[in-house]
């Protein structure tokens, strides 16, 4: 059944891509020091879009553990609008922005719609303001739906997952250099510190260091393998943000006031985007993944699966197309390509609107594949099951 899943490719949208807000940025002020300004959406060309939340916004912070509003000390580093924010991820399940101050172990979850902020009290991370090794500077959402964060030296590799509507933090261990890294060490300040992190559709993570070095991180083996250095950047360009855009390319940004660049992991050759040239970006985040073939691919305009964010254990399969006849088969794949569910559905006179229960599926990302009686794929669609 995997043959239905993997031929899917990312569709290039041409000039229309410039009209969509593609990813998110944690932006700073035009200042010689780290100084948080706002969270904003970004257009694909590197132009600023909607301002989501800023340093001057009124912040309502709710403690996850106490389930009550908290009043934070604005003179400390431990608050939701600290000037030292530097790690950002996009929570696809809740469409929230998850972030951490650089000098703090606190985790914050910003609801884009209500602007309410959840404080996740984190006793797992050991972050101190005076220890640069301990600062959390890289964060991303993995293809499995969990959020991952790494400190500068790789001595804390955090997994932030959601269970029973509560965020849970686990320390996965220490990330070490692959034996082949040589002088391009993931754990050395000059070659491996700072930057940001992205994920691919094969459950790998990639850390972009401030110096422009790129490391492939295995969450299972806890190793970081040097894969190359970004080319085509201006001298002394500081890589502080990285995210995957809707084309599957990596966008990088700098905190020092510069343009954004786009590159492919295949060759790491950077191409300057045409947008703003004096952006101060501390971190980037998006809902996309490198090598993600699990995008919506639909042969028929009137065939669909919804919702894509599943929080009530069922989806609907809808057909309104006279060319679709007889029985169709629904296959559900997990992120590794394994078939976890199969069900036959009967289409009568080109019509079907059937509720399908997703039996015993744990929380995470899945691909729903719809095929006709001959085995031809009619639809592939990615869904996210929330538990």
UniProtKB/TrEMBL annotation:
Keywords linked to the UniProt accession: Signal
Domain of life: Bacteria
Pfam families: Por_Secre_tail
Secretion system C-terminal sorting domain segment(s): 314-383
Signal peptide, first to last residue: 1-19
Protein name, UniProt field: Secretion system C-terminal sorting domain-containing protein
Species assigned in the record: Chryseobacterium aquaeductus
Taxon lineage: Bacteria, Pseudomonadati, Bacteroidota, Flavobacteriia, Flavobacteriales
């Amino acid at each position: 059944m995997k043959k239905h899943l993997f031929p899917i490719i990312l569709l290039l949208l041409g000039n229309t891509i410039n009209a969509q807000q593609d990813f998110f940025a944690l932006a700073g002020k035009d200042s010689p020091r780290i100084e948080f300004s706002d969270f904003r959406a970004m257009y694909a060309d590197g132009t600023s879009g909607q301002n989501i939340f800023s340093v001057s916004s009124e912040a309502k912070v709710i403690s996850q553990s106490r389930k009550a509003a908290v009043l934070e000390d604005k003179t400390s580093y431990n608050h939701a609008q600290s000037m030292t924010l530097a790690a950002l991820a996009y929570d696809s399940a809740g469409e929230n922005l998850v972030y951490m101050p650089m000098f703090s172990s606190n985790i914050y979850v910003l609801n884009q719609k209500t602007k309410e902020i959840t404080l996740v009290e984190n006793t797992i991370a050991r972050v101190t303001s005076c220890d640069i090794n301990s600062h959390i500077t890289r964060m991303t959402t993995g293809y499995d739906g969990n959020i991952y964060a790494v400190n500068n030296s790789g001595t804390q590799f955090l997994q932030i997952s959601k269970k029973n509507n509560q965020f849970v933090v686990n320390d996965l261990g220490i990330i070490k250099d692959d034996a082949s890294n040589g002088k391009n060490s993931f754990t050395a300040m000059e070659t491996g510190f700072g930057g940001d992190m992205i994920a691919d559709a094969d459950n790998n993570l990639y850390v972009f260091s401030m110096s422009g070095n790129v490391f492939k991180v295995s969450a299972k083996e806890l190793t970081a393998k040097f894969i190359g250095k970004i080319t085509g950047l201006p001298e002394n360009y500081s890589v502080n943000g990285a995210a995957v855009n809707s084309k599957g390319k990596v966008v990088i940004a700098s905190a020092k006031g510069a343009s954004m660049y786009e590159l492919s992991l295949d060759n790491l050759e950077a191409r300057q985007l045409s947008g703003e040239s004096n952006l101060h970006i501390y971190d980037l985040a998006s809902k996309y993944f490198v090598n993600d073939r699990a995008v919506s691919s639909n042969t028929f305009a009137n065939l669909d699966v919804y919702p894509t964010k599943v929080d009530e254990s069922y989806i609907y399969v809808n057909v309104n197309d006279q060319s679709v006849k007889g029985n169709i088969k629904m296959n559900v794949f997990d992120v590794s390509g394994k078939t976890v569910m199969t069900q036959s559905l009967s289409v009568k006179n080109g019509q079907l609107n059937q509720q399908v229960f997703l039996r015993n599926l744990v929380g995470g990302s899945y691909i729903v594949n719809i095929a006709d009686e001959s085995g031809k794929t009619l639809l592939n669609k990615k869904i996210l099951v929330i538990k």
